[in-house]
What we know:
Blueprint: H1 4-14, H2 20-35, E1 47-56, E2 62-68, E3 74-75, E4 77-80, H3 87-99, E5 105-106, E6 113-119, E7 128-138, E8 151-158, H4 162-165, H5 169-181
Parallel strand pairs: 1-7
Antiparallel strand pairs: 1-4, 2-3, 2-8, 5-7, 6-7
Helix pairs in contact: 1-2
Amino acid sequence: MHRQPVLALLRAHAALALDPHEAAMTAEVIRFVENHANCFLRSCLPGHLTGSAWIVSPDRTRTLLTHHHKLDKWLQLGGHADGEADIASVALREAREESGLTRLTLVSAAPFDVDRHWIPERKGEPGHYHHDLRFVIEANPDEPLVISNESKDLAWVEIERVTALNPEESMARMVHKTRVAGPRA
């Protein structure tokens, strides 16, 4: 599994004007990928790469969130790389599988956000880190949604209301970046 393309994405992201917390997490993810040849696999026990989809409406006023079944909170859609080295493709795959949406547009092959978060121990699976690359994906809010078994619910949420559902720093950061970026040109 070739790590150079994902390292190039991460290094380009690290060169951006990031807030200090995201900059530190990006540096940690780079070190993790450099030191773990199996970073794309769940069997990498310290953690593994994941790809998330920050799905937005074309006018950037709404985002699609899932009420995650296992974590019991509202989040962006996403999941494990499971051996796939193209993390943007992982985000698109997860967006399709978790929403039923078929008309998805990857806005940029560059990550929109990078996050590193702890996943607690569960049923024989030790606690570990998710090293998450998040990509902006555009979709039509009028397309019907299909709730997967990974979700309690799916909802298009006004950007201004996201942090009322989930006030975590990583969600607030993506909301802020969406506001700053504004509508797609």
